[in-house]
Amino acid sequence: MLQLFIMMKVDRTKAKLEKGADKATRWIGSTSSLIFHTILFVLAFVLPSIGVISFDRMLLGLTTLVSLEAIYLAIFIQMSVNKNTEDIEDIQEDMEEIQEDIEEIEKDVDEIQEDIEDIEEDSEEDHRIEQKEAQAITAIQTILTQLQKEIEQLKK
After folding, report:
1. pLDDT tens string 63-101
2. What is the domain range of residue 76?
3. Contact 44, 58 (CB under 8 A)
4. CA–CA separation, 47 vs 36, rounded Å?
5. Residue 34 burial by CB count (10 A; 0-12/13-18/19+): exposed, middle or buried?
6. How many domains is the chain partitioned into structurally?
7. Phi, psi angles (nearest 5°) of residue 132
8. C-alpha closest to that of 74 among 64, 66, 85
9. What angle, 0 to 180 degrees and rounded to 10, lies between the N-to-C axes of helices 2-28 and 31-49?
10. Does residue 27 contact residue 33 with C-beta atoms inside 8 Å?
11. What is the pTM of this model?
């Protein structure tokens, strides 16, 4: 039970980290991030000019901050790339399944087309048979009519 609770907690934490990484990479690539970083850099270089901090200290602090930001940004970007790669693999699997389904549907359509052609042939053959039967019936009726006339003549 405790192990299940720990696993659930780890999954939630992992999901929060991934969501945070996605937000961070989205924000870093935004206009507001560009403005923020520009203001930060301008401010960092203005502070030594007005005597608030020495240039060496500012440069050390700014270099450290930018290095840490680059490290975390690289990690966040890699997390996003890994997630996108998994999504792409899932999509590729889905597309392969769809392609297989399409191929099966094409086979079914081909079979249905063949069935339709068979039905049309049978229908044409039935029509020919019906025509022959109609011709035969007409011939029989003609013969019967002639026989009736002959019988009537014989009666006279």
Report:
1. 999 999 999 889 888 888 888 899 999 999 999 999 999
2. 2-155
3. yes
4. 16
5. exposed
6. 1
7. -65, -40
8. 66
9. 70
10. yes
11. 0.54
